[in-house]
């Protein structure tokens, strides 16, 4: 199952971003979590793994660049995308260079562009996992897909003597 984390200090922006991702047929079934506080998001990342994180750049507690830099240190195979209303070239370059941001998306975003960048980010995640030796096999990916389509499909119940319970 695809896990996406969204971080923005503005709850309305988080809702709009989450709604935009839920409208995507390609991201159907993705588990999306949202945080308005980057420190709480980092705590969550330490508990469970995410495939991709989308963070705002301007946040009062911690900048998006600082947040994504810390994320890179604790979860190096999680793909990082930054959103910003700023069109300052230095802002984008700092994010890309310091936090190794995969994409920098301007606000307001275009639905198709956002979806395309998220999907490309998920492909990049598979590449990073393969490099780290953590990539699931084709069989594991197919089993995961089947389980997402039909929950419980791969769980076989058996009696004590090993026969299958239908």
UniProtKB/TrEMBL annotation:
Entries under InterPro entries matching the protein: Bact_response_regulator (IPR050595), CheY-like_superfamily (IPR011006), Sig_transdc_resp-reg_receiver (IPR001789)
CDD domains listed in its UniProt record: REC_HupR-like
Modification 4-aspartylphosphate occurs at: 56
Protein name: Response regulator
Species annotation: Duganella aquatilis
Matching Pfam families: Response_reg
Response regulatory domain segment(s): 3-122
Keyword DNA damage applies: no
Biological process terms in GO annotation: phosphorelay signal transduction system
Keywords: Phosphoprotein
UniProt superkingdom: Bacteria
């Amino acid at each position: 199952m695809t896990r996406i984390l969204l971080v923005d200090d503005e709850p309305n922006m988080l809702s709009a971003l989450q709604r935009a991702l839920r409208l995507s047929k390609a991201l159907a079934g993705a588990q999306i979590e949202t945080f308005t506080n980057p420190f709480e998001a980092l705590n969550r990342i330490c508990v469970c793994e995410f495939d991709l994180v989308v963070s705002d750049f301007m946040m009062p507690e911690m900048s998006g660049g600082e947040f994504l830099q810390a994320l890179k240190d604790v979860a190096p195979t999680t793909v990082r995308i930054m959103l910003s209303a700023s069109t300052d070239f230095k802002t984008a370059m700092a994010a890309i260079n310091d936090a190794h941001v995969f994409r920098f998306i301007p606000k307001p975003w275009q639905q198709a562009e956002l979806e395309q960048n998220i999907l490309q980010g998920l492909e990049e995640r598979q590449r990073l996992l393969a490099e780290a030796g953590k990539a699931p096999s084709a069989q594991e990916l197919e089993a995961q897909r089947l389980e997402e389509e039909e929950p419980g499909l791969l769980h076989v119940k058996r009696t004590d003597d090993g026969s299958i319970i239908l």
